[in-house]
Amino acid sequence: MMKWEKLLTAGRADFKKQANQSQEQYRSEFERDYDRIIFSAPFRNLQDKTQVFPLPELDFVHTRLTHSLEVSSVGRSLGKSAGEYLLSKYPALFEMGIGSNDIGAIVAAAALTHDLGNPPFGHAGEDAISDFFRFHPSGLRWRDHLREEEWADMTQFEGNAQGFRMLLDKSNGLQVCYATLAAFTKYPRPAFVQKRDPSRRSQKKFGFFADQLSLFKQLADTLGIPLSGENTWYRHPLAFLVEAADDICYNIIDLEDGCTLGLVQLEEAIPLLAEIIGEKFQEEKLHSLKTSAQKLAILRAMAISRLVEETVAAFRTHEEAMLSGEFDKALTDCIPSSKALDKITTLSVKKIYRSQPVLEKEAAGFQVLEGLLEVFSDALYNQYFDSERFSGKDKSILRLLPEVFKPDNELQMPYLLLRNLVDFIAGMTDKYALSLYRKVKGIALPGT
User: Fold this and answer.
1) Is the pLDDT of residue 292 over 70?
2) Helices and strands per DSSP (H, E), number in the chain
3) Domain boundaries along the sequence of the chain
4) Of 359, 345, 291, 247, whose CA–CA distance to 60 is shortest?
5) Of 317, 322, 347, nearest to 335 (Cα)?
6) How far apart are CA 30 and CA 11, in angstroms?
7) What is the CATH number of domain 242-353?
């Protein structure tokens, strides 16, 4: 049984030594996490990463950055409200100096980073990286150089695991608190496990790569999170709130974007949102508003408010089962509005996620990321494992890689070479990936 007193440990995730606690009086450790993330380079890069629609020219269509800020805002509301309940139920938390604002800050910071590890071109980018190693000859040539669990990481690229890796990277200036990192980790297992329980939401995907298994074990031990199977842990209960914040935002706000771009008619969206809003929906008042944008804005705000209320109520209902590990579902599947959300998802898949602009973006993403991986991985392979083919072209290509690729005995480990290469490519913005692809393929010259 997990205990909130341990789950909310304020220590920072420095696995070599315990970091000194902040002496600041005006910010808690958890609030410092939020500020560190806001000022970090990986977070800034989200402004030029696709949410749904590719490289939007209209400033009212969401990027990964605006989506993350909105998820964080909803997450803070969920966390503060849940925190008030926890403080009333567990007085020892108050005695530890924990307030509802701290719990809100943990969820807000974790939610702010929930897409930090996503590569260029959204979820199509994840598939493109995985497919490169599963099917492309230049990816398959690395197979015999990797252990089974390392190969699973390459053929099942996961943005959540990439985000976990980035949150521990000192060069990013992050290294968030234990509790924030655990709340971020919705899928507390590596890619390669002997058995996976498909009925448990937390095992749907994986949350860290093979080389960070021992680090997650230390994290789980520190917070008192028990194993649910071999190399598989229960979720930190606040991870359910982070997931819910994302579910709420992408359902409601992707629908809003779809209406804004004319892919979904306002008349289709109104009854779906009204079903969530319930008795507070006033059709006459809605029709008194002049523009579609105004109507969408008020509907979105009211729908999110209702979903937050319902989600917090579900958290209260299932909180003890979360601590024991018995509860392992999405909170938004356990609320009165779950059927309305399912209807929105069905409509969004049909009219938004399979729309022409989105499909074109996905096709471009596959081409660009496959091309970048081919060029750079071939050069690395030839340098370390096939020196007879190591050409002048390969040397020029390798000079474009970051300093972490400078010759070093440790870097000759195939898994680490590929891990660093994927770090480099996954961290690119959409525009930079497209620009670099054109240059290394000779489609465009520098400065054009």
Assistant:
1) yes
2) 21, 2
3) 27-238, 242-353, 357-440
4) 291
5) 317
6) 10
7) 1.10.3410.10
Round to whole Å and give the CA distance between 79 and 77: 5
Give the rounded distance of the alpha carbon of 237 from its chain centre.
17
SS3 241: helix
Q: For residue 18, how many other CB atoms are within 10 A of its CB?
A: 10
In this structure, are residues 324 and 330 in contact, taking their beta carbons and an 8 Å threshold? no
Given this model, what pLDDT does residue 336 score?
A: 97
- Separation of alpha carbons 139 and 156, rounded Å: 13
Radius of gyration, CA atoms only, the chain: 23
Cα separation, 261 vs 255, in Å, equals 10
Question: In this model, does residue 24 exceed pLDDT 70?
Answer: no
**What single string gives the DSSP state of each residue in 77-122?**
HHHHHHHHHHHHH-HHHHHTT--HHHHHHHHHHHHHTTTTT--TTH
Distance (Å, rounded) from C-alpha 334 to C-alpha 61?
29
pTM for this structure?
Answer: 0.91
C-alpha to C-alpha distance for 90 and 104, rounded to whole angstroms = 16
* Correct CATH for 27-238 of 3.50.30.10, 2.60.200.30, 1.10.3210.10, 3.90.1300.10: 1.10.3210.10
Does 27-238 match 242-353 in CATH topology? Answer: no
Q: What is the mean pLDDT of the chain?
A: 88
423 closest CA partner among 137, 213, 124, 209: 209
